[in-house]
Amino acid sequence: MDQPNNQPNTQANDRGQRLSERIILVTGALEGIGRAVAMACASEGATLILSSFEEADLEPVYDAIVANGWPQPAILPLNLETAGERDFIGAADIVADTFGRLDGLAHCAASAPFLSRIDDYDPGEWERVIRINLTAPFMLTQACMPILRLSEDASIVFTSDRVGRTGLAYWGAYAAAKFGTEGLMQVLADETRDSSRIRVNSIDPGVLRTALRANLYPGEDPNSHPAPESVTEAYIQLLSTETRDLTGRACSVDPATGKLL
């Protein structure tokens, strides 16, 4: 992992930024919701750990954060499709050695390669989609629990989807994984509610203008949906101390304000 200069962000403190001095790991930071959340968190004073499949993919995001004068981020390449238990534990150990704690974990990585009837769904593809969208977030969260417990106020945010709350035809493994994400969030929130300073929530950001959506609906006008930047306020609310007492909540986003519902 490329290591940032870990000096306290006093300039951010002076500006009263809501994520000042918080260490936040964002998966899927290459594009879409993940990139938008990473940029928004950096603008609010957070030190970001940017994660995606390849280190080179994240360099433009890294450069954009640095160019804006925000806290220097770190890069943590992690292939959610192929990583095993040792890889996730190793990643958490690197974060621990570099920062000493983790204040926020935002699961923004997602994969929905196609729409298909259950009758026709390829079993191998089913397992791959479940792994990226559910198993890998579980394994990364599990690996990070010890360093999240070192924070005075830690927040885990799982990105859900409307099809993970009400199933829709043809969404297959992606919908099943998002239903699993909601269950994982609820179980972990109940386990940590009275035994730690970790809060766990999920958020359905709504239908947005992302590459994932464009891949599934190539004939759709992408401008008919809001940009990912329109929902970042809700993520910041969940990752900041202003929602310190909120846990176990399946959140949505107010389309008019971008804030939590």
TrEMBL record:
List the InterPro entries hit by this protein, alphabetically: NAD(P)-bd_dom_sf (IPR036291), Sc_DH/Rdtase_CS (IPR020904), SDR_fam (IPR002347)
What is a single molecular function from GO for this protein? oxidoreductase activity
SUPFAM superfamilies on file? NAD(P)-binding Rossmann-fold domains
Pfam family, any one: adh_short
Q: Which segments cross the bilayer?
A: none
Report the PROSITE patterns cross-referenced here. ADH_SHORT (PS00061)
Write out the entry's keywords from A to Z: Oxidoreductase
Family per UniProt? Belongs to the short-chain dehydrogenases/reductases (SDR) family.
Name it: 3-oxoacyl-[acyl-carrier protein] reductase
Q: Which organism is it from?
A: Imhoffiella purpurea
